[in-house]
Amino acid sequence: MQGRLYRLDGYPGLKLSPSAEDWVTGEVYLLSDPEATLRSLDVYEGCGPEDPEPHEYERVEACALLEDGRTLEVWVYVYQRSVAESRRIESGDFLQTT
Comparing C-alpha atoms, which of 61, 29, 58 is closest to residue 42? Predict the structure, then answer.
């Protein structure tokens, strides 16, 4: 999907980007119980209804480009705080260090 990925304190932070040059790699999952799973993930990511604001992440819908060329609307957690460009993962893949 279009975005920029940043290395935070041992975990990634996604910032969406309108630039066609900015891409991140991730995984897409089909949820058998979306409502319950997303509620649990919101709590895990610190953006559940009981978590104090401002949240570190916000769950938003975004468009993902699949390997087979199809596009799919997906939920992603977008990092809401400022982050130095020096922490950017240029490859867009958290498992790579560049």
Answer: 58
DSSP 43: H
Per-residue pLDDT reduced to its tens digit, 10-69: 899 999 999 999 999 999 999 999 999 999 999 999 999 999 999 999 999 999 999 999
Q: How far apart are CA 85 and CA 4, in angstroms?
A: 10
Alpha helices in the chain (DSSP H): 34-44
Q: Are 5 and 94 in contact (CB under 8 A)?
A: yes
pTM for this prediction:
0.91
User: Strand, helix or coil at 85?
Assistant: helix
Residue 47 and residue 42: Cα distance in Å, rounded?
5
CA–CA separation, 40 and 97 (whole Å):
29
CA 42/CA 57 separation, integer angstroms:
9
